[in-house]
Amino acid sequence: MSSSQVKLMIDGNTLEAPRGMLLVDAALRAGIDVPVFCYHPKMEPVGMCRMCLVEIGRPSRDRQSGEFLLDENDQPIINFGPNLETACTTRIDEGWVVYINSERALEGQKQIVEFLLTSHPLDCPVCDKGGECPLQDLTMLHGPGISRFSFHDKMNSLKRVALGELIILDRERCIQCARCIRFQEEIVDDPVIEFSNRGRSLEIVTFSEPGFDSYFSGNTTDICPVGALTTSDFRFGSRPWELNAAASICPHCPVGCNIILNTRREVKMGGSEIVKRVLPRQNEMINEIWICDKGRFAYSYAMDSERLSQPMIRVGGELEETSWDNALKVAAEGLKQSGANLLGLAGGRASNEDLYNFKQLIQGLDGVSMLNDFMAGGKQNQQIGLGPGSNLGDLGVGDAIVVIASDLLEEAPIWWLRVKQAAERGAKLIVANARFTKLEKYSAHTVRYSFGDAPETVLGMLHYVTGDSSLNKYAKVDGQEESARIIKEATNAVLFMGSEGSDSESSKRLVQACGSLLAATEHIGKANNGLIPVWLKNNTQGAWDMGLTPPEKHLAEEFRDRTALYLMACDPFGDNPEMLQELPQDAFVIVQELFHTPSVDRADVVFPAQSFIERDGTLTSGERVVQLFYPAVSPHGESLPDWKILARIGALLGVAMESTSAAGVMNRIAEDIEDYGEIHYRELMNREDQWPPVGGKQIYFGGTAYENSQGIGIRLSSRAQRGEAYEPVWKESPKKPKGEGIRIVPIVKLYDQGTTVLPSLLLAQRIGQPELVIGQEDADRLLLQNGAQVEVQWNGTAHQFPVAIDNDIPEGIVLLPRNRQLGLEMPMACNLTPVKPTSKEKGE
Amino acid sequence: MLQDNHATEIAQILERYPQASKRAAVMPLLFLAQREVGFISRDAINEIAGLLDLDPTDVGSLIGYYTLFYDKPGGKYRIQICTDLPCALRGAEKFSHEVCEMLNIQVGETTEDGFFTLEEVMCLAACDRAPLFQVQGKGGIQYHENMTLESTTAFIESIREQDANE
Ligand code: SF4
Ligand code: SF4
Ligand code: FES
Ligand code: FES
Fold first, then answer.
1. The dihedral of CA A566, A569, A573, A576: what is its sign?
2. Please, what are the domains in chain B?
3. In a mutational test of the pocket of ligand 3, which residue from A36, A138, A179, A226 has the highest number of ligand atoms less than 8 Å from its CB?
């Protein structure tokens, strides 16, 4: 037995565990339950609720030698203290004898439950938590049948306190465990809820504006051990035992959080199955037991009544609903006639199976297929991305994490969380961006460059690593040298690369520079080392892997002279209405979509696609983990999965494609694409034991997140890991276009106005109206005050926004959240003109 | 805004704490805010949060924790009579009752002229000198021990007089 392991006895079972482990954890790992309320395995113990009372006996030691004292039978003499102790705050040591289920311990636990219930309402029959409630379960297990307390002394409090528009508090039900408060403070560092008052009057309050509006707020409802915190979508929505559970993958960002879609048949919906709520599904390698509020609340878009439900064809200028057979025939005819110069454009939110079939179809028709994106990095990710065995949760002391050109909190919240936690565990975090982002708070180093200079900044770091003198012209901003040293000395290093401030050209240079930096510091080809691109869409990496890459030229140029355009899961005419002018008038357009987007308005044939809740498929996360999602509800109207629509058209045009099932398409992918050689549905369904236990019987311990029994996915290996050498290359920066004027830079906000967010009623209040962020100097020059309207012109279009002044933004730069209808994919030159308020608006 | 009237004092308070732990200044700043108008307004909470880079929730939640902070306006003077067990044994409850009657208010209420709010509080750590109360108002906090209705009446009158002369 190593000295770091200790032997102890719990309820008569002898077990070994690491010295200093919390007793509650050691017991549960050995399969012995300790009831807890306030303890949560992801947070520091606080010992507030006293539910975990146990008897602890410690061996007596000889004062001089430190040896155990033995009794006449040569057994150590064990001393039990006069009081019960809390298992959640006590760290184990050698030779302990612990009783969790002794008469004394059980009596103590029973009294605590009796106490907790003195003011707890008898709400179970109407409480959302009923059926999956730790208080209910532990009362049944440990509680007394009757209370000695007078009912008249019960505290009565407010039953409906809207902490924010998404989280509702029932003050009577709160048992004051502080899990929610500690989660907000310790885990996500957004302390917008707190206890106020004392003793029996203790209550949860918020003084923040606007209330409990935190990107991770929903998780508090999973770990609240009672029905005190509920989400507004599920409140009084269903009993937990009526729900079916389908495993899925969040489709909103490249993290790929594992989720559960809880569904139920609903009378209101004519008896059809609908999603009642989204809960996290445990995957300690990806999202642990958390998800962000976008993943939890945006799902309602998939059930929106505006969804396309029938194929449509254009007849005499108008779109008319028609049968699948007819629509497919018209589409096939159209492609036959006009397909000479065909462009296929797909979006990064489609599944691997869709994207693979898309590529096959367009290729089979001698067309050109592309990904509707501009950010580079998919190829480098295949070469040097994180490989098998990686887990961001393993990064800590001695490791380095670099985040460049990304506002991780807005773009990929769970990555932000895991990077923050790695930094708190001791990993050195370097945040490089052209402006302040919230991640900087946890960084060992920040590097602030000018907008657009991300590639040069990395090349400057490379200079300090390699000493290459041709690069010393790039070593010019503070922190480059120190960052280079940290990366070089780190045991493991992971680099997150985003696209903020980049255009397609500089994005390419950025990824080359990043790859070269990782190669030069030998952080490739090993677990927990390499690159993670922070894609704008969830499955962009999958698209690259399926062979789709962004256009080489500007999309407008790609549209010119086309005779036919095939769009899947993207809306180029909605993103930028100007594009309508670029596509020839008589070009034949097919669109596969969920909603009636502006691109649908330009279509000759429209196919209704299924959303992720209605079908199965796989997605590849930014970390290159391939994960499986399952169907949860029956298809909306006559919609079909994208891969199937493509296969059916292929059949009419003589392009042979897999048309039986998504699993079948995945088998084709495995045959065809080397990196996916090992990927089959069966392997994707593999599970693994994970700590902490959640859901099911262990609901009181880890919360209501679901245990992962449907598959934790597979991490693709990188080429470097398979032994392929990586050739570092970088390009010199082109001369910057000199010239004054202001550049407008698109940034990402979590609640954007994307096709899959805008229809989400739950998030409506949070989406908000976009503001133009401007620095103090420019604001002063233009005599702009916070909130003033300004007209912004770029690319021949003009838009009006209210301005928000931010001291941190340098002169000559304005920021605007990415948004539909703006045609602002990459930074551009723009013109600002203050809008004079009319006298009415001035309120005069 | 506190900053408008108390900029120097605020700067002095902030100076007492190292930059890295400036949140420690939250208590003196709350005192300052309360001294200003007798209670801590929502605006004051936001202002203090801004000064210390805290979330307003971190500041506001303290007010409920400490019984000497108020989130609602009251009288110019708060008379806080201890009615905890030892004091109660020495007649504090009856005393409180009488003072209420004399002021023509109930516990928790404020006199019509806005001068006095009467509260019953827990042990003030002077049990042997009951009945007693503390007064919170202009001039900070003062104890008045071994009180009778007469001495209390006299005290109240003296305050009213004093205020009239100012
Ligand atoms: S609301 Fe729930 S999680 Fe928060 S303190 Fe109360 S019981 Fe605990
Ligand atoms: S972090 Fe990304 S993947 Fe995870 S729940 Fe949020 S949007 Fe979905
Ligand atoms: S005191 Fe141990 S779980 Fe609450
Ligand atoms: S009980 Fe009143 S002062 Fe102690």
1. negative
2. 2-65 (1.10.10.1590), 77-165 (3.40.30.10)
3. A36
